[in-house]
Amino acid sequence: MELDITKLKETLCTSLCQEVGLYSRQDNRVIVDTPFRFPDGDSLLILAEPISTGGLRLSDCGHTLMHLSYSMDVDDIAKPGNKNELFQRIINENGLSFESGQIFVDVSTDDIGKAVFRLGQALSQIFDILLTAQQAL
Predict the structure, then answer these.
(1) pTM for this model (two decimals)
(2) Strand pairing partners for 50?
């Protein structure tokens, strides 16, 4: 039996779309609700907002580090050592930026799908790796 790739793609796309919600906020940003979760069940926060280039900025608004701060001293991320190296590697490998506690990526509106997955994966990796590194100490 051969798989019908076209039908499978349609089913997958429909299924994935049902898992993502977009909710407008009064501050002109949009909550991108995904099935991505922290180990404790809390949702990863991803907000989309327009940028001057005509694209979007997808950001965690500092939520990931705030969530990590419940279990570790997040200031350690900025200090030389393993945590900083792990953090920087994840940021760089995923083409993200880090500024003022926020992890974000600027993209064209056409690239939002890939960027949401990339940011969600990176936020999960950052949380897992840094928390694991903290617990190993």
Answers:
(1) 0.86
(2) 56
